[in-house]
Design goal:
heterodimer; A: 114 residues; 4-stranded antiparallel sheet; 9 strands; B: mainly beta; 7-stranded mixed sheet; globular
């Protein structure tokens, strides 16, 4: 399975933008890049996903490098509620069967200071 | 919708005891899975199911059994609990492949299990 590499931890100030990097140099052409986050004492929740183009939704933006070997999750204005572990995950475009499984690494623990 | 529900929230077992962790979803999702999360680690897949009557093993299946008799329920059975199974267990579900929202997995709140 293709692996991702993320920093163990990052810090941000409240109301400032946060850029969370992810390297995935062995990504295949059919792998989507997914981001999930896990708030303290909760199950993971979906944040965003993309294939080649940059993506935006109400939670965040995803910037994907042209060669797809890296990506960056962007939180435009961090709030205290965004303090969580953020996971960058590669997932095959066929979500059925074993391709539907998510393979979690250790993620990046984001701390947000008031 | 209640989403994905898990019971119990907390459980303490003695070594050798058996128990069943319950998971249910009311979103008519075909795909369901069980993960475990050890302290400071990411989640690891135990078992998964792509529909009623179909189950398969994930990364760490030893010591666990599953069945899927209905679309809604996906219980996880610990056959003979061991201290190494102390962990937080998460159940997840998602729509089938081909559904526009199949990219998203929905997770339950977790069951914190301690085996002494």
């Amino acid at each position: 399975d293709a692996k991702t590499t993320q920093p163990n931890s990052m810090e941000s100030n409240e109301e400032e933008p946060v850029h969370l990097p992810c390297n995935h140099s062995t990504i295949s052409g059919t792998d989507y890049i997914h981001w999930y986050r896990q708030l303290p004492s909760q199950g993971p929740e979906y944040v965003i996903h993309g294939l080649t183009s940059n993506v935006n939704n109400r939670m965040a933006s995803l910037a994907i490098a042209e060669d797809r070997k890296s990506s960056t999750l962007i939180l435009h204005r961090a709030t205290l509620r965004d303090a969580a572990v953020y996971y960058c995950i590669l997932r095959d475009e066929d979500y059925g069967g074993s391709q539907g499984n998510l393979i979690f690494g250790k993620g990046t623990k984001l701390s947000v200071k008031p | 919708n209640a989403g994905v529900t898990q019971t119990p929230k907390f459980q303490v077992l003695k070594t050798g005891q058996s128990m069943t962790l319950q998971c249910a979803q009311d979103m008519n999702h075909e795909y369901m899975s069980w993960y475990r999360q050890d302290p400071g680690m990411g989640l690891r897949l135990i078992h998964y199911s792509v529909g009623a009557g179909i189950t398969d093993q994930g990364e760490v299946p030893n010591g666990y059994n599953v069945s899927r008799s209905t679309t809604e329920d996906f219980p996880l059975r610990l056959l003979s609990a061991a201290p190494s199974q102390t962990s937080v267990y998460f159940c997840a579900s998602s729509p089938p492949s081909g559904d526009p929202s199949s990219y998203e997995q929905y997770f339950g709140p977790g069951t914190r299990l301690t085996v002494t």
